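Meet the record:
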Amino acid sequence: MSSSMSAEEPVRRVALVAERRLVGQAIAAALHGRGIAPVLFDWPERGGRLSFRRALARSGASVGVILCDLRTPDLLHDVELLVARGPIRWLVLTDSDFGPRWGTVLDAGATGVLPTTTTTASLERALRDTMAGRSPTPPALRERALRAWESVAEEQRELIRRMELLTHREYEILGSLYDGMSVRRIADASGVAEATVRSQVKSLRRKLDVDSQLGAVALYRRSLEVFPRARR
């Protein structure tokens, strides 16, 4: 570590927001071992964002890490909302491949985006950069990510925004419909009543503003051009 970096104020308290709590606990333990006090938060509920922000403010953290693989539009939207408002400066650690999704969260206000393969020592340096307002994402990579998002056609951007209105469960059901599963099969696989799935299909159709299940599936197929499915 350079002398100029060591002269900077150390990172003492970090807010951790983890989609998967076990992953968050592992990162928290690693940071704690380096003398950093992490404050771990569960993923914010859509109806409880105000109380979540109040808890963030009480944490005393000026820098935070979001752990999320950005695999669905609703998760991407959650991250955009988190990073868009201060006073915390956010670093996003993600399993998602480099591309428009990185550019989306950077454009929304994230200070930096890094892969989850980042070492603990590198994460500490990245947090120091983030706290100082510097992006830990290499400039060339940052520019490429922003260009990747900017190059997405406006029509496709609007499509992704509509997909963001869906809950995680609705998006999963839509993906199952795209895979050719019937409502009955989805219900059986999920252990819920068929009427429950039909209600969820009706809800997602309303949010996507389409008249039929086939229309919803067609929108999902088009969204995959910009928002590819995670590798299984």
